[in-house]
Amino acid sequence: MQAFYKGLGTPARLDGDTLRLEGLAAHRGRFVGLDATDPALIEKAKANLPEWADGTLPRELVDFGMVSRNTRYFPFGETPGVTCADPSVQVSRCRLADRVLLAVYNTDESVKKDIVLNLDLDALHLTPKLEWQEFVGVRWFFAADKAPTPSLDFYSQTLSLKAMPPKKGRLVAIRKY
């Protein structure tokens, strides 16, 4: 188990059974997460990442809940519910009951592209059943190239990724809340 903390000062450390927050001022508090993800599941998730991810599993992806015993992995080209009209775009995905993670890759050698993916939200199990209570959100990982945030058009069921550099990929998660 490991402790992780993101935010203002006061790093958290787990020493055996003791959580230590050094330098925490009086009348101040911190939120600290404890992670007990099975190392075998972490290795399975790394093995199912696309090659362009260089085996790097972002911590945020684990925090988002994509590393689970229930995660189903689909290779490039076998992505039920996701299509792209551009043949130079490859897409793979992994899925949980309430979320999917898309690995989108621009195979073009020299052209930066705006990519539009067509989604079948029913096939992806992401269509809200209680429209007044549920919604669908988008989050992305590997944002090192400072590209614009992907946008989901729920009604036309499309996901747009602007300015995808050549020979680069992005991980985009879609979740039903």
Determine the mean pLDDT: 83
CATH class designation of the largest domain: Mainly Beta
Q: Using the CA coordinates, give the radius of gyration.
A: 18 Å
CATH topology (level 3) name of the largest domain: Chondroitinase Ac, Chain A, domain 3
Question: Can you tell me the residue ranges where pLDDT is under 50 for at least 5 consecutive residues?
Answer: none
Give the fraction of residues assigned to helices: under 10%
In spatial order, strands of the major sheet run: 5-7-8-13-10
So, CATH architecture of the largest domain?
Answer: Sandwich
Quaternary form:
single chain
Describe the structure.
- This protein is mainly beta.
- It folds into two domains: about 35 residues, no CATH class; about 140 residues, Chondroitinase Ac, Chain A, domain 3 (Sandwich).
- Helix content is about 10%, strand content about 40%.
- It contains two helices and 13 strands.
- Strands 5-7-8-13-10 form a five-stranded antiparallel β-sheet, with no helix packed on it.
- It starts with a strand and ends with a strand.
List the helices and strands and how they pair.
Layout: E1 2-4, E2 12-15, E3 18-21, E4 33-35, H1 39-47, H2 59-63, E5 72-74, E6 82-84, E7 89-96, E8 99-106, E9 113-119, E10 136-141, E11 151-153, E12 158-164, E13 168-176
Antiparallel strand pairs: 1-4, 2-3, 5-7, 6-9, 7-8, 8-13, 9-12, 10-13, 11-12
Notable characteristics:
single chain, 177 residues, mainly beta, Chondroitinase Ac, Chain A, domain 3, 2 domains, five-stranded antiparallel β-sheet, four-stranded antiparallel β-sheet, 2 helices, 13 strands, 8% helix, globular
